[in-house]
């Protein structure tokens, strides 16, 4: 235990939190009392009385947050509400205070709360605190700056005391003005002030960390706030065989939050089907679930890497973008390439992407091919400029993934007019409906061999698919930000 | 690999693993060609090469299963199929055609392998090992027993390392079908593993062990066998807030395999709703998923024994005040904390009844235990017993004023069905299988998240004799079905006219 707290400060902080909550939620706020202990007691009684009389648990949730300084879990809200309803008032208030003083809440005894009434709070926790810049963080850093420019909202991350708080300056820069790693190792610091949404909209453009799902689920179900989220995919539970062992476990807890959300904005038609399928399951537990919308991700070539008319590699290069993990089906690409090399076709095969997991069989196959003199290269930490250059120089891209939420390499390749061989299913097929791709069953090696053969040998085909890819309608992050906001927050969201 | 050396080794096995390999190769070639295996090692190798040279994944699956004496993983099937097409069967299977020097492999290398064709394999791995009767095992037992009476079925379990199927011993079958505890079957299990070929595999219990589900995935996807399962619910996916640690990943592994099954027969319309929702979630994989059918579980009521009724009447003070019965373990999904709250509200308003919980402890039961103790110490007539004999449980059902079962999600709410079958009214949830079983007949349907609604229903049922009598009479009119009808209703979609797809 750290140094003892000043009891007067604890009482004042409690009274201040209760007053902030009462000010936001009660019609009749009791007059302030000069003695913080008496003030807190009066406010506790008023809030508890209103919570017990209320038809729902929202005030109980707020009372718990004001008492403890942290967001509660659903079982805690229900337990307190049952006390408030069934026990004599003094006993119930004793439980509230005892709960607030429990060891896991002691670190929060001095925290202050800022109640956000009727606003929009956007939880960008991971993107704010981490330098990683892959899939979801790119979406956040491309979308949220548009939201901030156009609307009134509060950006938030999690503090170590289990509640949302406002961002620090570096964190704001990471989200709104990303220009590369800041290397300040954003830790879950304890915040002196935390945010309490009340009658507000909480938007989750990320997939929250597992530990945050229970308090967010309670907020979505019981607090009276509404929660909206961007839905990326349900791969961990649908294709568990292609994921690390713990991922499904994490994801089912994420789903406990999804089921109480109001809106899901899915990044592709196929991701929308996944979330709609989950919603279809919910009537058996008496829930309606969120309304599911689709807002397809855009692709924009960053301005600083625009290098027009880069010539294709000679001999041809075939590009494979994506982390090396079983789901990406890279072993099928290695097999197809070997068949084509044995047929005498000349081309190099270039993989770009971070290490995924379970890539041992891929690595050993690559070593064997290299020993046999095959032109296989692997780029692990490749800059954006080099990635876009590789797309431009490739004869075509191969992306025969077994399951994707979106399929970014397909869209990126199209953006520079490089044809794609991709899977005839899900989001990849959706992306290819505008042309520019040859579609194959990713479990059919012969089909993959044939498609790659055609694109390596048929110049007219390559030219036609390239033209189709370039003719696709452009879609910008501004478009995406506008449409996704309308889905997640609705037309009533405050315009700036 | 040198063909002559291999052929010579097959003709002159120097070691027990070498002899086992020869036997397996004969079994394999016989299964692949549909003819007796040739006598000489050279002909055996030639037949092996010829049969496998197209690199058909089904043949590769069978080859790996037979030569390695364990069911293969999908990644191994795919890798070997590619190797066959690139470099031919002998090179592709070099690793399995040479006895390993690894002593850890020796046990597996000595296994005998039997390929079963045109058979129906029923997997009772759990049910054959424990005399316990969970809901799932009861279904598996009742059903498998009747299938065996009417059809030719082969009961299988798994080897101790969960890598291969094997025939169950007689003791295991007895436990699997009748719940009798025999001697420990695993110790004396036969060393012969079964490999199904052109057969049907049926799973009437829940498989969640990772090694088992990974191998079932490859079996369903590659073997060409027809595959079917009874679908109990998708609670670990749909209601994860109520499950213990580890079940989410384990169940997702089950679903990854079941994606490739032909048929799931759900135990209720509610369970089918969950499975159909999950099947829609497959959209991103391009897989159609299994056909989802429904065969609702029957309701099996046992007339209570007179002695048990007398015993329970006095033990639970039924003559002093009405008995309200709650059956089920105290996991959060069963919502027993809400029952305690509703009872307290009803008691506060003057209702008189004794509340009896019958059920074991479970994950996440601490808040229930805590509140129960508080109420008991405050003098409320509430009691919790871990288990009752079947006779006593049925007696309690019959003696109860009503049964309360406000669960948050059930594949099949067994206590609802059991109470209704005896004419005891039920307070249960207004959705899912609980609504489906009673459809409001013999029951008061409530929102289980609304303590006041449960309390109100309790008050009405313990005070209103006419209401209680009417619901009881109604309950006896609910159709119950039978295990015989259920066994027939599941056999047709799971096995159908023949074992082949």
**Which spans of chain A have pLDDT < 50 for at least 5 consecutive residues?**
none
Q: N-to-C terminal Cα separation of chain B, in Å? A: 36 Å
- Fraction in beta strands of chain A: 5-15%
How far from one another are the termini of chain A? 47 Å
| Tally of separate helices of chain B | 23
Oligomeric status of the shown chains? heterodimer
Looking across the biggest beta sheet of chain A, what order are the strands in?
4-3-2-6-7-8-9
Task: Report the structural category of chain B.
Answer: alpha/beta
Overall geometry of chain A comes to elongated
Strand fraction band of chain B? 5-15%
Radius of gyration of chain A (CA) equals: 27 Å
Characterize the main sheet of chain B. 9 strands, mixed
Specify the number of helices of chain A: 21
CATH hierarchy, class of the largest domain in chain B: Alpha Beta
Verbal overview:
- The complex is a heterodimer of chains A (496) and B (501).
- Chain A has 496 residues and is an alpha/beta fold.
- Chain A has three domains: 7-110; 115-298 and 481-488, Rossmann fold (3-Layer(aba) Sandwich), CATH 3.40.50; 304-470, Glycogen Phosphorylase B (Rossmann fold, 3-Layer(aba) Sandwich), CATH 3.40.50.2000.
- Chain A has helices at residues 7-25, 36-53, 58-68, 74-86, 89-100, 103-106, 125-129, 135-150, 169-176, 210-222, 235-238, 247-258, 269-281, 330-342, 360-371, 384-393, 408-415, 426-432, 445-457, 459-470, 477-488; strands spanning 112-117, 120-123, 154-159, 163-166, 193-198, 201-204, 226-231, 263-266, 291-294, 316-321, 347-352, 376-379, 396-399, 420-423, 437-440.
- Chain A has a seven-stranded mixed sheet, sandwiched between helices. Chain A has a six-stranded parallel sheet with strand order 12-11-10-13-14-15, sandwiched between helices. Chain A has a two-stranded parallel ribbon with strand order 1-5.
- The longest helix of chain A is centred in the N-terminal third of the chain and has 19 residues, at 7-25.
- The two termini of chain A are 47 Å apart.
- The mean pLDDT of chain A is 93.
- The mean pLDDT of chain B is 92.
- Chain B has three domains: 3-110, no CATH class; 113-298 and 486-494, Rossmann fold; 306-475, Rossmann fold (3-Layer(aba) Sandwich), CATH 3.40.50.2000.
- Chain B has helices at residues 3-11, 16-33, 41-52, 57-68, 74-87, 89-92, 94-97, 106-109, 135-150, 170-178, 210-222, 235-238, 247-258, 269-280, 306-315, 336-348, 366-377, 390-399, 414-421, 432-438, 451-463, 465-475, 483-494; strands at 112-117, 120-123, 154-158, 165-167, 192-197, 200-203, 226-231, 263-266, 291-294, 323-327, 354-358, 382-385, 402-405, 426-429, 443-446.
- Chain B contains 23 helices and 15 strands.
- Chain B is elongated, with a radius of gyration of 27 Å.
- Chain B is an alpha/beta fold and 501 residues long.
- In chain B, strands 1-5-4-3-2-6-7-8-9 form a nine-stranded mixed sheet, with helices on both faces.
- In chain B, helix 1 packs across helix 3 (41-52), helix 11 (210-222) packs parallel to helix 13 and helix 15 (306-315) crosses helix 18 (390-399).
- Chains A and B meet through helix 4, helix 11, helix 12, helix 13 and helix 14 of A and helix 5, helix 11, helix 12, helix 13 and helix 14 of B.
């Amino acid at each position: 235990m750290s140094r003892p707290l000043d009891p007067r400060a604890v009482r004042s902080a409690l009274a201040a939190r209760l007053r902030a909550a009462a000010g936001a939620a009660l019609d009749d706020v009791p007059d302030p009392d000069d003695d913080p202990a008496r003030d807190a007691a009066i406010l506790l009684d008023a809030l508890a009385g209103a919570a017990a009389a209320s038809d729902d648990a929202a005030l109980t949730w707020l009372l718990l947050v004001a008492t403890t300084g942290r967001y509660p879990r659903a079982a805690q809200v229900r337990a307190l509400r049952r006390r408030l309803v069934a026990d004599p008032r003094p006993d119930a208030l004793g439980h509230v205070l005892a709960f607030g003083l429990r060891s896991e809440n002691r670190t929060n005894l001095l925290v202050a709360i800022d109640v956000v009434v009727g606003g929009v709070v956007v939880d960008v926790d991971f993107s704010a605190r981490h330098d990683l810049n892959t899939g979801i963080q790119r979406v956040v850093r491309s979308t949220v700056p548009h939201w901030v420019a156009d609307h009134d909202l509060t950006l938030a991350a999690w503090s170590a005391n289990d509640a949302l708080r406002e961002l620090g300056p570096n964190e704001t820069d990471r989200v709104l003005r990303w220009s590369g790693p800041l290397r300040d190792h954003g830790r879950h610091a304890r915040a002196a002030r935390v945010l309490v949404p009340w009658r507000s909209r909480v938007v989750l453009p990320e997939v929250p960390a597992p530990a945050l799902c229970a308090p967010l689920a309670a907020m979505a179900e019981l607090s009276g706030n509404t929660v909206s989220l961007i839905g990326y995919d349900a791969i961990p539970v649908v294709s568990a065989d292609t994921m690390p062992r713990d991922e499904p476990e994490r994801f089912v807890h994420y789903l406990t939050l999804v089921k109480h959300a109001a809106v899901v904005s899915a990044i592709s038609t196929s991701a929308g089907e996944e979330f709609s399928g989950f919603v279809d399951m919910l009537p058996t537990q008496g829930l309606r679930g969120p309304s599911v919308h689709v807002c397809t991700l855009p692709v924009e070539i960053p301005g600083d890497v625009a290098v027009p008319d880069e010539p294709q590699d000679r001999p041809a290069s075939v590009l494979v973008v994506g982390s090396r993990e079983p789901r990406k089906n890279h072993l099928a690409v290695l097999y197809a390439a070997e068949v084509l090399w044995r047929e005498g076709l000349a081309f190099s095969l270039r993989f770009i992407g971070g290490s995924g997991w379970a890539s041992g069989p891929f690595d050993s196959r690559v070593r064997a091919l290299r020993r046999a003199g095959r032109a296989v290269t692997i780029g692990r930490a490749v800059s954006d400029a080099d990635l876009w250059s590789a797309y431009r120089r490739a004869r075509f891209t191969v992306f025969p993934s077994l399951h994707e939420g979106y399929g970014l390499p397909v869209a990126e390749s199209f953006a520079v007019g490089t044809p794609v061989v991709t899977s005839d299913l899900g989001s990849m097929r959706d992306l290819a409906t505008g042309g520019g791709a040859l579609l194959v069953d990713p479990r059919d090696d012969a089909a993959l061999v044939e498609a790659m053969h055609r694109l390596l040998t048929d110049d007219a085909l390559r030219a036609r698919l390239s033209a189709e890819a370039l003719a696709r309608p452009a879609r910008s992050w501004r478009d995406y930000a506008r449409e996704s906001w309308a889905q997640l927050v609705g037309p009533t969201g405050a315009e700036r | 690999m040198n063909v002559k050396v291999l052929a010579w080794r097959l003709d002159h096995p120097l070691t027990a693993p070498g002899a086992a390999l020869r036997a397996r190769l004969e079994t394999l070639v016989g299964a692949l060609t549909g003819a007796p295996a040739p006598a000489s090692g050279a002909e055996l190798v030639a037949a092996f090469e010829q049969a496998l040279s197209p690199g058909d994944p089904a043949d590769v699956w069978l080859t790996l299963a037979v030569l390695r004496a364990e069911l293969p993983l999908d990644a191994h099937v795919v890798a070997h199929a590619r190797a066959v097409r690139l470099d031919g069967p002998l090179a592709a299977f070099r690793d399995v055609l040479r006895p390993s020097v690894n002593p850890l492999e020796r046990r597996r290398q000595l296994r005998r392998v039997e390929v079963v064709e045109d058979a129906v394999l029923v997997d009772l791995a759990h049910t054959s090992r424990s005399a316990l009767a969970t809901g799932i095992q009861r279904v598996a037992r009742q059903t498998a027993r009747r299938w065996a009476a009417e059809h030719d079925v082969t009961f299988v379990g798994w080897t101790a390392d969960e890598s291969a199927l094997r025939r169950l011993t007689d003791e295991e079958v007895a436990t699997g079908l009748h719940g009798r505890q025999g001697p420990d079957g695993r110790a004396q299990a036969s060393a012969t593993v079964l490999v199904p070929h052109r057969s049907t595999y049926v799973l009437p219990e829940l498989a969640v062990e990772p090694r088992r589900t990974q191998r079932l995935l490859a079996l369903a996807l590659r073997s060409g066998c027809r595959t079917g399962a009874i679908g109990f619910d998708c609670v670990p996916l749909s209601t994860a807030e109520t499950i213990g640690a580890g079940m989410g990943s384990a169940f997702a592994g089950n679903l990854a395999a079941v994606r490739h099954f032909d048929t799931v027969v759900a135990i209720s319309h509610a369970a089918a709703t969950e499975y159909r929702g999950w099947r829609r979630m497959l959209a991103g994989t391009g897989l159609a998923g299994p056909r989802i059918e429904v065969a609702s579980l029957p309701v099996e009521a046992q007339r209570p024994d007179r002695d048990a009724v007398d015993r329970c009447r006095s033990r639970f003070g039924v003559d002093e005040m009405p008995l309200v019965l709650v059956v089920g373990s105290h996991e959060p999904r069963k919502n027993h904390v809400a029952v305690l709250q509703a009872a307290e509200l009803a008691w506060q308003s003057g209702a008189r009844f004794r509340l009896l919980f019958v059920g074991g402890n479970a994950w996440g039961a601490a808040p229930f235990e805590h509140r129960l103790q508080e109420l008991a110490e405050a003098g409320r007539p509430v009691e919790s017993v871990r288990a009752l004999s079947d006779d006593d449980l049925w007696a309690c059902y019959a003696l109860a004023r009503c049964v309360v079962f406000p669960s948050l999600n059930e594949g099949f709410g067994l206590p609802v069905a059991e109470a209704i079958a005896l004419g005891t009214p039920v307070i249960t949830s207004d959705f899912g299988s609980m609504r489906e079983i009673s459809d409001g007949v013999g029951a008061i349907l409530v929102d289980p998240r609304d303590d006041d609604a449960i309390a109100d229903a309790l008050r009405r049922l313990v005070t209103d004799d006419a209401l209680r009598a009417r619901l009881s009479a109604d309950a006896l009119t609910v159709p119950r079905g039978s295990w015989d009808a259920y066994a027939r209703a599941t056999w047709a979609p799971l096995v159908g006219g023949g074992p082949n797809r």
